[in-house]
Structures are given as structure tokens and as C-alpha cells.
Amino acid sequence: MQDRKHVAWLYGQLPDLLRDGTIDADSASRIRSRYGDVEEGGQSRAIVLFGILGAALIGGGIILLIAHNWDGFGRPLRAALSLAPLLLGQGLVGWTLARRPESVAWREGAGTFLTLAIGASIALVAQTYHTGGRFEDFLLSWVILGLPVAYLLRATLPAILYLVGIVSWAGINSAWTWDQGNWGVGEALGYWGLLALAMPWWFIEMREGRYGPRVALFGWTLALTLPIGFAISLGKVTFGFAGPVWHAAFWTTLFLAGAKWWPHATSPRQRPLLQVGALGAVGVALVLTFGDAWREHPTITGSLAGYAIPLAWLAASLALWADALKRRDVGSALLGSLPVVACAGYAVSAVSPWLAAAAFNLYVFALGVGVLVIGLRAQRLAMVNAGMMILSALILIRFFDVDIGFVARGVAFIVIGAGFLLTNVMLLRKRRAAQ
């Protein structure tokens, strides 16, 4: 965690450094991108949090007061009261832009209030005039109308609500059915178009500092909702023809993107794509060590249009893997090769699924050893533990997959645990000696 006072001092020196030619404008921009926004220290984050909470409570209180006397109001008064939260939210946003444009707390609070007011007004007007309609249509209207608030105020929570809203909309539209073993995704493929509308907001924020808390918070929400959207909208494709390849490509792309564009993160929380992508990619690799994972599901099919998105993920993963090789990032290249190995495994699975599973057992073993060796050479405790966890997971899976006695399993657990402890103790001692 950066000392915000020191960063603030550094930012104060930048104008003088630019003036005397010590650094250029690009260097100053990279420094700001490296350390993020100074104003969002612990105190400022608390102010933002309480501002959001206050706006949500006020909005909820107004709605409850109106709802208490709702049945006694006439239709014109109901319509006016339905629009009141929306007008109040717009007025608050206008005041914030005019008087407090630099305050993150006011922008977040006003944006949250207006976003919630949009949903409340739509629901109340629909109830007043009995317009009917499906819940998913209401949800889609709400999130689309609320997204401009995130851009206008540069507010994080409206953008996060949008991500949660569109994945919920895709889930409702997926309409799980079991006719002939198919999952009907319906309109859920539209999730990707809706997602594209929110991405410019993230890119704009990254220009101000890609390691800042707003970028990280949006990134974590994206990293956690994107796999759900991927599975929901592409269920017919990713669980059918060449399913292992598509899953490998998806998780690997997240991991490699995080490794490429957040290389200097000082904390794991600043690299959500890398953390979630690595966890998912290793999970997929472990699943593919089972022979049953390579059996085709011929009754699960998808449209040709549905295959365009997984193919795009595969192309992106291969491009990022080639870039990692070019940068000689061995750690990223090891896990980044997962889609290539999955393609080879899929080709082999036509002959024997168990042969593909055996190949993946070798790959996961090599991956664990490689990560462990890289961590030991660089004296990076996190990588050492990651490599040992991969190897341990592979060993434990095989123990439960084959018929081995409880005594042998118990001894193996003890040996693995002792290996963890000894490796960590030795590495910590080396660190202390070096210091």
C-alpha cells in the first residue's frame, strides 16, 4: 500500500520537474497512472462510502413514505409522486456538477440516488397505469437509462450496478430448458453488446490511474460477473463442441490481460483480472485432467453466431500468449499456453478421452513445477505457494480419483503439508538474511 502523503508530495513536485525539463509530460502521466488518485485515502473512501449509503437510505425512505399512503392517492397524484424521486435526483446531480464537480463523495452519492430513482420511477409509473410487461424488460430499461449517469458523473457505483444488472438480465433471459438436452439462451447473447457499452467508462478511468481504487472496484465486479455472463449467454456453445477449448481461452484471456496491463501493481487487489483469471484457468486445467471432461455432448449445440464470441476469446488468448512470449514473461506464458494445450487435447480426445486427460495431467504437473521454480529463483513467496498449491491439488485429485487406502492418503497429506511449511520457512530465512 502506497503512503499517500509521499505520493501527494511527489505530485506537488511534478509541475516544477516539468518546468525545468527534468521529466516530460508523458513521464508525468505515467507517474500519475502508476500511483493513482491521491484524494482517495482512507478518510476520503469513508466519506464516499457514507455518501453512497446516505443517498440509498434517503431514496429508500422516500419510497417507503410514499408507499405507505399509496392506495389513498389518485392517479394524477400517483404519477406526480412517481416522478418526484427522478426529478429530485436530477436536481441533485445538476447541483453536484455545478457546485461540487471535484468531490468524489458528492458524485458517487448523487449518481447512486439518481440510478435508484430511475428504477423506482419506472416501477411506480408502470404500477400506476398497469402497463404490465416482463421483469427482464423493466431491468433492461433501468440499467440502460442508468448507465449515462456513470459517464456524466464519473461515478463508480452506477457502473457497477449496470454490470450486475446486465448479467441478471442475461440470466433471466437464458430460460433454462431441458428439451433435447439444450439450454435456450434466447436474447442472452445481447449481454455482450450491453457489456461493450460500459467498457469505455473503465478505459476513461484507467487514463487517470489504472491502479486506483475505482478502476480496481469496477475490475473486480467485471471479473466476477463476466464468467457468469459467459456461461449463461454461451451455454449451448461452451458445453458442446470443443467446450474445453472455449473455457480455457476465456479464463486465460482474463489472466493474460491482467498480467499485461497491470504489471506494476503493488497489491493483489489491484489486479482483479489476473487473480480471477489465474484461479479459473487452473481450475479448468484440473478439471481437464479427468477423462470424462473430454467426452462430447452432441445434443448441446449452438448457432453459428454463438460461436463467433468464443472464437474471439480464443484469438485474444493466443495473441496475449504470443505477447507474453515476446516479453519473455515465463510465468504468464506457462499458464497462458492452456488454450494451446486444450486444442491439442481436444484433437487427441477424438482417439481417446483418457489420452487427453493424461496429457493434461502432465501439463498441470509441469505448470506447478514451473511456477514453483520461478518463485524460488525470484524469492517470491506468493509464486512458491501458488506452484505448491497447483501440485498439491493435482496430487489430491489423483488420490481421490484412484483406489488408495486411508493410511497412504494420510501420509501424503502430512508430507504435502510439511513441504509447504519447510519451503516457506526456508524462503523467509533467505529473505531476512538478504535484508
Largest sheet: none
> What is the arithmetic mean of pLDDT?
82
Radius of gyration: 26 Å
Low-confidence stretches: 176-184
What structural class results from the helix and strand content? mainly alpha
Overall helicity: over 70%
Shape label: globular
Give the total of beta strands.
0
Strand/helix succession: HHHHHHHHHHHHHHHHHH
Q: What is the distance, rounded to the nearest whole angstrom, between the alpha carbons of the first and last residues?
A: 20 Å
Strand content: under 5%
Number of helices: 18
Task: Give a verbal description of the structure.
This protein is mainly alpha-helical. The protein has helices at 4-19, 25-35, 42-68, 75-99, 104-129, 135-153, 156-174, 190-208, 213-233, 235-238, 243-261, 272-287, 304-326, 330-336, 338-349, 353-378, 381-401, 406-434. Helix 5 runs antiparallel to helix 6 (135-153), helix 7 (156-174) packs parallel to helix 9 and helix 9 (213-233) packs parallel to helix 12 (272-287).
